From TrEMBL:
Entry keyword Lyase: no
Protein name, per record: Corrinoid adenosyltransferase
Pathway: Cofactor biosynthesis; adenosylcobalamin biosynthesis; adenosylcobalamin from cob(II)yrinate a,c-diamide: step 2/7
Origin organism lineage: Bacteria, Bacillati, Bacillota, Bacilli, Bacillales
EC class of the enzyme, as a word: transferase
GO molecular function: ATP binding; corrinoid adenosyltransferase activity
Subunit structure: Homotrimer.
Gene: yvqK
Catalytic activity: 2 cob(II)alamin + reduced [electron-transfer flavoprotein] + 2 ATP = 2 adenosylcob(III)alamin + 2 triphosphate + oxidized [electron-transfer flavoprotein] + 3 H(+); 2 cob(II)yrinate a,c diamide + reduced [electron-transfer flavoprotein] + 2 ATP = 2 adenosylcob(III)yrinate a,c-diamide + 2 triphosphate + oxidized [electron-transfer flavoprotein] + 3 H(+)
């Protein structure tokens, strides 16, 4: 099998339903999702040998498959094929976010990305996911897409934040609070 096809040598690429320039918003969006997937793979490689993260590693691998689904849904230009990304995937992320928020120490202030190597990689994945989300918003303004992909990516960035905090907590590494942060996270009961 040959990896190169030479079909993109003129700056075009194929989507489901047509060809576009390689800098098209659609390609930028699913390409940035691919970047996020790669950083998640890096985080997974850092965590996989530690038994404390067996659950998290299984989730990250599932997420990697789902990110391929997100990219595939965004590569459909005519909207005629059935989409793969659905609200159940978003709900599953929400459930894991809620569990991880309960496991990590209480959070009141902004924190600096980092701590352990695994947490730092998850924070990097979070920021790339946020960039992908911005690309999807731009695409959504210009063309129809599966709207659930945007919800999924929004929740994924929150999931990655929560997961990074849990990695640090399980390792006994404290998150570093941003030193000039006001108290920005409160329980709903505490809101003035």
């Amino acid at each position: 099998m040959r990896l190169y096809t030479r079909t993109g040598d003129q700056g075009k690429t194929s989507l489901v339903g047509g060809r576009v320039d390689k800098d098209h918003l659609r390609v930028e969006a699913y390409g940035t999702i691919d970047e996020a997937n790669s950083v998640i793979g890096w985080a997974l490689a850092l965590l996989v040998d530690d038994e404390r993260f067996r659950d998290l590693c299984a989730e990250l691998q599932t997420i990697q498959h789902e990110l391929f689904d997100c990219g595939g849904d965004l590569a459909i230009v005519n909207g005629k094929l059935p989409y793969k990304v659905n609200d159940e995937m978003v709900a599953r992320l929400e459930a894991r976010i809620d569990a991880y928020v309960q496991e990590a120490p209480p959070l009141q202030k902004f924190i600096l990305p980092g701590g352990s190597k695994g947490a730092a990689a998850l924070h990097m994945a979070r920021t790339v996911t946020r960039r992908a989300e911005r690309c999807i918003v731009s695409l959504q303004k210009a063309e129809p897409i599966n709207d659930v992909v945007l919800k999924y990516m929004n929740r994924l960035s929150d999931y990655l934040f929560a997961a990074a905090r849990v990695v640090n907590a399980r390792l006994g590494v404290n998150d570093v609070e941003y030193e000039r942060s006001a108290i920005v996270f409160r329980d709903k009961e505490e809101t003035p």
